[in-house]
Amino acid sequence: PKPGATLVQVKCMARTRIPTPHGPAFLHLYHNNRDAKEHLAIVIDPAQTSDDALAAPPIRSRSLDAVWSETETEAERIIRGAYVGRLSPTLQRPSNPTCHHSASISVMTGVPSPLIRIHSECFTGETVGSMRCDCGEQLDEAIRQISQPITLPATSSRMPTIIPGRGAIIYLRQEGRGIGLLSKIRAYNLQDMGHDTVTANLMLGHKADERGYELAGAILRDLGLGSDHAGVEGVRVLTNNPDKVEALLRENIRVVERVPMIPRSWQNRKPKADAKNLDKYLRTKVLRMGHMLPL
């Protein structure tokens, strides 16, 4: 942290299973000491529900699994999400607060580091389906890519093996690149007047991008992902934004690879209603913000 700044602390308050079109995910809700927002982590990890031999350590929240009070009951732990396996009317097993998950299970040879994405909230793109941006598509595509099965090559002791994908999306409440929904809506009007996203933000007195990633680093550490400690895996980051990679490195997150995020609409560009808005948005990202996306 900067001199005089408070060290960012996060605590996972609840966790639950979410069925998605791409497979199961576990939604984690975090509180923190930096702002009053509820940030999220979407964890995709077969070890959460499988009793089979694990190819890699489970991705679990340290703060959620910790003992919160001397009087807490197993039922309280389970209800907040500190359980193992899959909940059912007949099966409820609380997690072990003393279990050091990463240290107790080694990574199978050939298993790639978890794939993660740092994603910022976008009401217009994710809820309304706005074509001014590709945020909704990127969120869905990130879940799909992380969920993809992984083929491990054959070794002297095993045949080629297919394992489920694993990783996490850190979902930060940073609407409009950090300027908030009110300013974002006003910026849209400026865009309709001919300005791009960067200029519109500047005209409203904001920076081109006001997001921060300290909370993302803290959440990743809580999940045991990318910490620069012995026995902890590095991460592959799904992004076109080099600033995100640099920000994670400053948070001492060990990034082993940047994986391009090529929007489906960019791969298969076809004439359709309002496509020019999305095209202008993506070109601005590349030409004015340094994103690594082929034009």
Automatic annotation (TrEMBL):
Biological process according to GO:
riboflavin biosynthetic process
- Ranges for domain GTP cyclohydrolase II come to 107-260
Q: Does the keyword GTP-binding apply?
A: yes
Is Nucleotidyltransferase among the key words of this record?
A: no
Question: What EC number(s) does this enzyme carry?
Answer: 3.5.4.25
Keyword list (alphabetical) reads: GTP-binding, Hydrolase, Nucleotide-binding, Riboflavin biosynthesis
Q: Which domain of life is it from?
A: Eukaryota
Pathway annotation: Cofactor biosynthesis; riboflavin biosynthesis
Pfam hit, one: GTP_cyclohydro2
Task: Spell out the reaction equation it catalyses.
Answer: GTP + 4 H2O = 2,5-diamino-6-hydroxy-4-(5-phosphoribosylamino)-pyrimidine + formate + 2 phosphate + 3 H(+)
Single Gene Ontology MF annotation: GTP binding
Q: Which PANTHER family match?
A: GTP CYCLOHYDROLASE II-RELATED, GTP CYCLOHYDROLASE-2
Family, per entry: Belongs to the GTP cyclohydrolase II family.
Protein name (record):
GTP cyclohydrolase II
What is the source species? Laccaria bicolor (strain S238N-H82 / ATCC MYA-4686)
